[in-house]
Design a protein that fits this description.
alpha+beta, about 35% helix, 7 strands, about 180 residues, 2 domains, 4 helices, Nuclear Transport Factor 2, Chain: A
Amino acid sequence: MKKTILFILPLGLLFACDSSKEKKEEKTTTESKPNYAYTIEKPDNWEIGSTKNTEIVLASLKAFENNKLDESLQGFADTVRWRADYMDAKFTKDSMKAMFTSIWSQLASMKIQLRDFESVVSKDKKDEYVTIWYTQTTTDKKGKTDSVAVINDLKMVNGKIVELDETMRHFPVKK
């Protein structure tokens, strides 16, 4: 009996090792390159980026929500490219402050409900972005309330926002 166990035990260990090796080989051979419907120059080019960049962007948004415009602009570079619906222009901090002041001159309040955020860096470390998703609800000085879904892609260079690419979706009017 002891001889049988001594003979079977090594065989069992041998097969156990071989089967795990086969599973590893099988796993690597079944993984393949994605078959995307569209091709781009650098697919899958992004990695998780800096939390510091996210902190800068969120602090800027929070300050804007609270009408603290000077504080909001601290996160921006001296010149910022801003792209939005029907707009693609470069602004200085002073011109951005004037625009923000104009927006706030019509508002009684603003509330931001942050949905998500992500900081990414390109694999070659040349490009860094923070993307934020949120709902912005405003009430104007006449008491009219409106909400929009917003996605902002903010390009970061040396801890400053240098580009703001903004997309908004208005919600259907309630009947």
